[in-house]
Structure formats: C-alpha cells, structure tokens
C-alpha cells in the first residue's frame, strides 16, 4: 500500500470512531452505568457516557463539514505528492474547525437571527473541543501510519519523511 492510499482510507477514521461510540452509547443505555464501568467513579463514568452520546448526536453538526473536507482531502491525494498530502492532512483539523463553526453559526443565525454573548462562549468552547478532537483523530491516523510503515505494509518508491 502507498502512503496516498492509506491517507484516502484514513478519512474513514472519524466514522469508525463514531460507530464505536454509537455501540458503546447503546451498550451503556441498555446496561446501568455501574455494570458498564464498575471501577470508575460515578462522575467519570457519566462524563464518558456524555462524551459518547455527544459525539454520536454531534454528527448532525459535523457530517456535512467533514464530508466536504474529506472530499477535498481525497481528491488532493491524487494531485499532490505523499509528503505534501501528509502535511495537508496534518493541518486538516484547522479546516474542519472552521467549517464546523461556520455550520453551527449559520444554523444559529437561521434560527434566532442574531448571536448573543452566551453563544460566543459556546463557540470558544466548541473551537477548543474541535481542535482537540481533530488532532486526536490525526494522531490516531498518524500512529497507525507509522505502525504500518514499520510492519512493511506501507511502502513508497521514495521514503516519505515528515519534516517541518
């Protein structure tokens, strides 16, 4: 497999995580939280349940921006070299954050017609969460990439060096 092929496949990582979160949220919904996470403090287990549920329901806000970004990234792998594609993918959480915030702001403006002070605070929180989660997903993808490189599954004609 080549690096660009892996990058195209790695665009599915957020959907795989979403599916795992959906399964875990459904499992937590059918079982009591005490049975699901018996050794964790209650606040932590509730926090985990809220995260899974928020990510599963949050697809309403991130599916369209991510689909647009994924299409752009997918087609960019055909026209750019692997080294440049790796850099573009590494910066993709910034673009995803901007696209998702634009979507949320447009939805809010269409519903209420204006943005209030509380909404501005929500935007700052969402920005921090989106960037954090985006770079977690990129980190997962890059970790898998390096692992597959070490195992010899990903091979390029010229080795790809990710330098700054």
N-to-C series of helices and strands: HHHHHHH
Parts with pLDDT < 50 across at least 5 consecutive residues: none
Class derived from helix and strand content? mainly alpha
Total beta strands: 0
Strand content: under 5%
Layout of helices and strands:
Layout: H1 3-10, H2 13-30, H3 33-36, H4 42-57, H5 59-79, H6 82-112, H7 117-150
Task: Please provide a written account of the structure.
Helix content is 80%, strand content 0%. By secondary structure, the protein is mostly helical. It has one domain (3-150). It is globular, with a radius of gyration of 19 Å. It starts with a helix and ends in a 14-residue tail after the last helix.
Quick overview of this protein structure:
With 164 residues, this protein is mainly alpha-helical. The protein has 7 helices and no strands.
């Amino acid at each position: 497999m080549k690096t660009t092929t892996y990058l195209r496949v790695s665009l599915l990582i957020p959907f795989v995580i979403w599916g795992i979160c959906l399964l875990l949220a459904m499992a937590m919904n059918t079982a009591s939280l005490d049975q699901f996470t018996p050794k964790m403090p209650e606040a932590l287990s509730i926090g985990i349940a809220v995260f899974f549920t928020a990510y599963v329901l949050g697809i309403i806000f991130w599916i369209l921006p991510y689909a647009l970004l994924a299409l752009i990234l997918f087609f960019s792998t055909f026209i750019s070299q692997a080294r440049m594609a790796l850099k573009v993918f590494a910066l993709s959480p910034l673009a995803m954050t901007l696209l998702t915030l634009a979507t949320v702001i447009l939805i809010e403006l269409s519903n209420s017609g204006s943005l209030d002070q509380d909404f501005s605070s929500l935007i700052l929180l969402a920005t921090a969460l989106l960037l954090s989660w985006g770079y977690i997903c990129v980190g997962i993808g890059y970790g898998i990439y390096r692992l597959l490189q070490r195992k010899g599954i990903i091979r390029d004609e010229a080795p790809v060096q990710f330098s700054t």
